[in-house]
């Protein structure tokens, strides 16, 4: 074993003689530019922060494992799901969505739920939220939606006018808005919330047979949420409350776990199901497609270095393995590009080579060069394909399974425009106290909205979901439920 060298060095490995005093022209003279150790320290310090994520900037992460408890190989050939008892190492990052890197954990916001499985066939990322649906269903609206959640470019303050204006003009958001404004909008901890893949994905088995699938991570700790007043108090007193809770739980051996379950839909059902199964603003009824257990995720190790592991971790729903493919979900299709591209910008071209992102089975391709390429860059091996020099070759058995598509190339929306049924069903599932808190949260969030027409338009959406829902919000705002004609006037 090599004896540990305790000498402080520069970034190029040379021993540092003095790390307390810079080189100057005499004790009161100016600092000399020849103090390269000083220059290197300052230059590196200026660059210690990579750009924060545009969304999901604030987060916490942990390592763990996923263990299969039910054989579902009849549905997918993904090797990490191939046999009961099989364990796969994984890393998860929880996050808020809208806030900056230093924002509070206990705000009302969806939580990101991004899991990286280090499988023998490469990494598999499942990048979802703690909600089964989302605000929009087409990626072309995503930049506009996120702009409304960020700061106003003039005041640099959060802008409820923008938030509710966008939601009121995007009725597909109603289902997610109802979840967000409910008790589940502020989880008690990261440990006490569910996670969802949200989108529809496709599983394919060894025989080439495919099904549609949705992922549900059910917390084994039980669902717990925060009272709004306690959440506000914690935001001021301990803005890192969720981050601290997760770290301490794992450090104390209280390892959190989730049971992964899936819904399976035959491909042909997608043509006739009463809701478009690829619309991420909708859920599949569990009466129609019951939950099937897959396995258990356990978090048992904290990161050794937050920046190296949590901040530099990169996730994308396009990080797939054989046996798991995508669906025509319009929001998912946009994310397949946007996430990888965000990481190339934020972390760098070679972000997949970083230890936290590098697959355990290695990388074997013809991609070369780029900023911060820190491995052997392919060495002297062949660097193009096809070639006659025994370079890595494609494996046709790992092609994505086909599915039929048809139609005219045009800017089109989903065929189904029922944005109210599922939101209304959710409202009616709540007990009286839960509905009262939901309405109270909405009223408090909408009161600062300056334009009455925005409030009236949104009230009408609540009313269409459930008359009581809309009426109570209107009463809380001192308004009456408008007619369709009044909304359109």
TrEMBL record:
Cited CDD domains: catalase_clade_3
InterPro entries listed in its UniProt record: Catalase, Catalase_3, Catalase_AS, Catalase_clade1/3, Catalase_core, Catalase_haem_BS, Catalase_immune_responsive, Catalase_sf
Record keyword Metal-binding present: yes
Domain Catalase core, chain residue ranges per copy: 9-393
UniProt KW Metal-binding keyword: yes
Enzyme Commission numbers on file: 1.11.1.6
GO molecular function: catalase activity
SUPFAM superfamilies named among the record's database cross-references: Heme-dependent catalase-like (SSF56634)
Keywords carried by this UniProt record: Heme, Hydrogen peroxide, Iron, Metal-binding, Oxidoreductase, Peroxidase
Lineage: superkingdom: Bacteria
Reaction catalysis annotation: 2 H2O2 = O2 + 2 H2O
Region of interest (Disordered), ranges: 1-27
PROSITE patterns: CATALASE_1 (PS00437), CATALASE_2 (PS00438), CATALASE_3 (PS51402)
Enzyme type, top EC level: oxidoreductase
Signal peptide: none
Family assignment from sequence similarity: Belongs to the catalase family.
Protein name: Catalase
